[in-house]
Amino acid sequence: MTAEEAFGLLRIGAVEIIPQEDLLKKLQSGKKLVVKLGLDPTRPDIHIGHAVVLRKMRQFQELGHKVVIIIGDFTAMIGDPSGRSRTRPPLTLEETRANAKSYVEQVGKILITDDPNRFELRYNSEWLENLGFKEVIKLASLLTVAQMLEREDFKKRYAEGVPISIHEFLYPFAQGYDSVPIACDVEMGGTDQKFNLLVGREVQEAYGLERQVAFIMPLLVGGDGQKMSKSYDNYIGISEEPSEIFRKLMKIEDQYLQTYFELCTDLSPGEIKEALEQGGPVGAHRVLARLVTGAYAQPRIPARLDRPLYESLGYRWEAFGQDQGGQNPVVQHAEARYYEIAHGGIPDEMPEVVIPTDELSEGHISVARLFTLAGLTVSNGEARRLIEQKGLRLDGEVLIDPRMEIALSKPLVLQRGKDRFVRVKPKPA
């Protein structure tokens, strides 16, 4: 593949490449590029929103370039202010490293991680933890306060009188400095990272390096239109159970279907249009759910999530989600469970929670406390409100009394809404 062909492939789906001509020149040089992505381990899950960027990095790897994942175990102690309306609580180094453990396994579902010529994992505490104050001053001198306040999230907070801590101004410099030890050629990130990626170009120049290319990918919203986040309970984790991935994809609001097809699959624009128009919302949901579930159920997702992959699962493309069965047992099971629950059934398989004996009083426990211990509500108060709204069930029966006491002498099935189930049982004597 020529440099021009590689450039054409890589820019598909990108929001911005700054500057495009630099990326083309780097590809034409014939050298192996260093492509960087920083991940702050503030949460232990990687979701399919992150996968939008990771899949593009996989393309770089397939073209022979090297991907460097930098776990921001040190910068997470600062807290990335990108897109924040208030200061993000800092984490300890121990907390960030604990969260980072699962990141290493999860990126391996998408990236080629068993070839040291194409993958490297680094922790930015390696160089930031011992960075002297002299270097911090040098970094901070690269931008003015006025330039910092041009950044949208800082500008909004400043205008609204929301406090901005000085340490938050240091975050873009710390992230930018990450590009220096690895001599980064291309830094990847979502649209919320544009400012940080551009600061990285300034930092590299200050240290005598060639400026990196800022490669900016779109952000995937949750199925409800909000930013995909665990906080909003609208994320789809790449390592979740296939039945959960299928369920969540089937619940995406119709207006976001095209965006999900564009960002989460490799279907052509014509194929996406065909699925949406001829399959309708229900058929299109099925195609998307089957394709993505089938891909992420594998130890490493296929290079392309396209029509041949869909048909390899045993479905006919022209049926647009109407044909049942397929040949992949994992997707079959996920789909069957989804429709079982949709028709009011209680699935055989569900998470199980053992209730400690010290939570029981003569073998009894309040129903509100039971749902909270099961993880279906965040507090006893929320459980009581949901019971009053007839939003919780016990063994399939709608609960009506928020003060009810339950005898926990056998396993019970708790249900929130149509599709969230937990089986609870007492701790064995």
From TrEMBL:
* Keywords associated with the record: Aminoacyl-tRNA synthetase, ATP-binding, Cytoplasm, Ligase, Nucleotide-binding, Protein biosynthesis, RNA-binding
The entry marks the following residues as binding ATP, namely: K230
Q: Which domain of life is it from?
A: Bacteria
Question: Where primarily located?
Answer: cytoplasm
The cellular location(s) given in this protein's UniProt record come to:
Cytoplasm
Q: List the GO molecular function terms.
A: ATP binding; RNA binding; tyrosine-tRNA ligase activity
Stated name of the protein: Tyrosine--tRNA ligase
Tell me which species this is from.
Answer: Meiothermus hypogaeus NBRC 106114
Q: What is the lineage of its organism?
A: Bacteria, Thermotogati, Deinococcota, Deinococci, Thermales
